[in-house]
Amino acid sequence: MPTIPSTALEVRLAARPVGRPGPENFTVAEVPVPRPGPGQLLVRNLVLSVDPYMRGRMNAGPSYAPPYQVGEVMHGGAVGEVVESTVDEYAPGDVVLHGLGWREWAVLDASGAGRIDLDLAPAGAYLGVLGMPGLTAYAGLLDVAGFRAGETVFVSGAAGAVGSVAGQIARLKGAARVIGSAGSAAKVRYLREELGFDAAFNYRDGPVTEQLADAAPDGIDVYFDNVGGEHLEAAIGALTVHGRVTVCGMISQYNATEPTPAPRNLGMLVSKRLTVRGMLVTDHAHLQPRFLEEMSAWLRDGAVHYEETVFSGLRNAPDAFLALLDGHNTGKMLVKLAD
Ligand code: NAP
Ligand code: FER
User: Ligand 2: which of 127, 132, 246, 252 to mutate, most ligand atoms within 8 Å of CB?
Assistant: First the structure.
């Protein structure tokens, strides 16, 4: 069991970004390690998640999640080891998933923790393929888009945490063809050679419309959108009659300072009778047991592959987050604090 230090580090929002954030938007502070009160746990964080939605929480103004406060510690998904417990359900040495990331040590209500099993998968997997991004992919493809075997699926952001899982689930559930887009030649190679995508392209190489037409000459039935913008317009053009879009995210617009243009071909929603549905993973919690069962089996059988891009040390958490927004991750972006 680790000894409890008197102080530890946390990352705070220093200033709200305008456009693309930088290191100046964060500060690292040294604070006393708090002690757990009744019903609480003291946890030493092992690994933290940085996610695109955090960019939205750095802005002021209401959204589906309340904004981070300037001068206060940020938060997000984390896996940590229980070091002190005041409840019967948890003992020192237990490993838990919780929402108080961006800090080395955390005191949290036991009701906000969930036990995880490191014999089934390593800690980081519970923040990626077996966690919130994995469930997003599963629910977005199967529930929101209503994907069926024999269909052709296009996934953008395909080499990332959500996209890489969405594409693999489509393949495992009998897609006729799975197409992915990503932002580098190495990622395109990864999609084709490691993840079993039938076709993939680098959206920086040329117009998405043209590259998608080459990759899907007969069109697409489902588009899993992580990116928005030019990708969404191209997908609307490529969709077949009664095609469906899951709008999971629009990362190409998260740093925008001006309203972004809509797809110019929305008239095709009428002629092709398309369905375009936004989603939030929290609406699909009822799928969690089925998702965990299926995903655990796929991981055990080696049917699903996953990558992690790992930065080390809390001081590097802001850089990990900025690198995520710039596409320097393959698979899930994580910050490792301790073994
Ligand atoms: P991720 O894909 O692992 O990482 C973000 C990726 O976005 C980067 O690696 C980068 O890859 C790509 N990107 C950045 N700027 C881009 C641009 N201008 N155009 C195209 N691609 C760009 O992140 P994730 O956690 O899996 O999240 C993926 C998407 O799902 C995000 O839009 C996120 O907001 C959304 N999401 C939604 C929900 C929900 O409930 N609705 C839940 C989780 C995640 P490239 O190298 O390919 O550019
Ligand atoms: C959540 C709802 C949505 C959540 C994350 C998201 C961590 C992600 C949204 C996005 O990336 O756009 O409760 O919890």
Answer: 132
